[in-house]
Request: fold
Amino acid sequence: MLIRYKKSFEKIAMGLMSFMPTEKDIKQLQLSMKMYEEDKANRLFLWKEEDIIGLVGIKADEEKILVQHISVSPSHRNEGIGKKMISTLREMHPDKRFESTDYTERFLSKCMGEETE
Reply:
């Protein structure tokens, strides 16, 4: 189940986000978390089953959803969690185009059935 980020989930969210190549530096990680907390266009969601095991961060506008961050706990990778997160977001925003960053492009293409070379 996809749930909205709350401050009480900060430590687990930071842990999951730190798996992203762009978030290895603690200062960058803190800036990214601050962006999701303060900018209403940026939204952070967590994937919860028994525990919180995944994270997806987006920037939404009138026309599109930009997938900025996506991460799944290493012990739950290759179980389709990322695909479930993207599928749920697509259900939430059926009228919007999905875009990616350089770091989320390959994964997003795979999730949307548009695997590229």
Observations:
- The CA atoms of residues 22 and 94 lie 28 Å apart.
- Residues 26-38 form the longest helix (13 residues).
- The two ends are 31 Å apart (CA to CA).
